[in-house]
# Entry
Amino acid sequence: MMRNRIKRLQQIIDDCYRELYQEASPSADFDILMENAPLDEMGRKVIDFNSYYLPSEKFESVVEKHRARMKMEKYEEMRFNFAVYLGPSPTSKEKEINKEV
# Structure
């Protein structure tokens, strides 16, 4: 039973990333980003999340929608939050545009 909850939680996390990148500017397919991601020195996939922008209000809306899909225990909610907020989610910081004066 526990294994099924872990799989379900990971599925929700993955779906959340998919929607976050779909809604980001520029829009991207998260599955393709993962397939093509280079590996770092520790063998982890690296996504250039700073190249994708999503306003914080929209970001929070998507995250909350996916968080609500499953009644989570406290540790599951913490795992979800760590994965989404500290993982390779699109940035919510607008890039400054250099303007000539």
User: Anything to note?
Assistant: Confidence is low (pLDDT under 50) at residues 96-101. The helical segments are 2-23, 30-36, 56-67, 74-86. The chain has one domain: 2-39+46-86. The radius of gyration is 15 Å.
